[in-house]
Amino acid sequence: MTGSTSIALKLINHLDALTELEAAINAFCSDHSVEKKQWHRCRLVAEELFINIITHGYEDGQPGSINWTISFEGNKIHFEIEDNGLAFAPRSPKPKALSLDEIEDVGGHGTGIIAALVSSIDYSRKDGLNHCHVVMEAG
Questions:
Q1: Which partner from 41, 52, 61, 131 sits 20 to 30 angstroms from 111, CA to CA?
Q2: What's the CA gap between 111 and 56, in Å, rounded?
Q3: Within 32-127, where are the H helices?
Q4: Which tens digit of pLDDT belongs to each residue from 25-46?
Q5: Termini Cα distance of the chain
């Protein structure tokens, strides 16, 4: 391991910030020799989480910030995410079953993708902030 054991980012709640997050994940995974398969999974999970936060957590045009820490402990990658958006628990009960036509219109597969690729995900809301801790295998 050649890089820092953690990277802290302060991101704006705009899709443009996804590029910064992806660059940080790429650098982090490279520094820690994360296997390519897990590296891609890590980016996919981060992308899904970030897009869920900005899509569901903020009204259009509402300014906000997302604090995102990536750390490496043992053989696990951790995401610590804190945002000031609306409450959104990534493991909330799913809404009623939708038809294929409804799914295409609504989306809604992000949390399922996340759940399938991570070891654990914990969510809490405290003092008006969402806190999410995600753990993934590094290899």
A1: 61
A2: 12
A3: 36-56, 100-106, 110-117
A4: 999 999 999 999 999 999 999 9
A5: 14
